Amino acid sequence: MPPPVVLAKTHLQQEGERRGQSTTLSQTSVPGLAFLVLCLLIALGATRPIDWWGQSSLAGLSSSLLDLTGFLLTLLGAVQITGVIAVVLAVRGWRRHRARGLGPLLLFVGVGLEVLLKYLLPHPSPPAAFARHLHVPDFLRLSSAFLLQIATPPGLRHVAPPYSFPSGHMLRATFLVALASARTPYWRAPSWLLVLAMAFTRVYCNEHWVSDVVGGTLLGWALAAVATAGGHGGESAPSPRETAPLPVPRVRAMTLS
């Protein structure tokens, strides 16, 4: 029979695992269910008032700094760049945890869901009446367009889904930031500030409605929760103290004289 110390430790480990599984389930189900509810609201046209309010509120706002910020964040959130980041994280995760470290590749599952919904869920993009010309240097505009063109496979260069829900930029940014926050908590605050800035500029640049931005955020959050479950997000390896075998107390035999 195992010593009492070992039995107590095993019970505590099992209890911690059950709590961790419960937490992971709630972290996944909350944004997932919220995303499904939002899809239903969009299908019913219930988000139109807040969508039009968002576009109208930012229509009169104009700033060269916001133009440049919106352009750079649009470039940063492109699937060509975020896809490379996800692959790099997956390679590092594979080296550390083998198959358990491939969670970042769920980004491409999100891209597939994004494209599917943009074909199936009727939700047209914001009208041209809200469009604005972004004042950015010509060399920056031309060079970024050229690089993205090269990085895009020829068969996908002319793919243009008819609808705008959800925002792919918000999906990918939220997914990667959630993974980075789980792995390195001290990056949490600046990373989420970046996500908030991208959410604002998605509407400011007339690329998406408010509901598109919220939908992309919820979907990215749900996928990140799945990716980080059980160490799939590439968290740092446990310390030797955590993985060391439990000490077994020695019992000195007693003899009768």
Task: List its salient traits.
single chain; mainly alpha; 257 residues; disordered C terminus
Binned, the helix content reads: 55-70%
The rounded distance between the terminal residues' Cα atoms is 28 Å
Total number of distinct structural domains: 1
Contiguous uncertain segments of 5+ residues:
5-9, 234-246, 253-257
Number of helices: 10
Molecular shape: globular
Average predicted local confidence, pLDDT = 83
- How many strand segments? 0
Specify the oligomeric state.
single chain
Q: What series of H and E elements makes up the topology? A: HHHHHHHHHH
* Biggest beta sheet summary: none
Would you tell me the structural class of the helices and strands?
Answer: mainly alpha
Strand content: under 5%
Radius of gyration: 24 Å
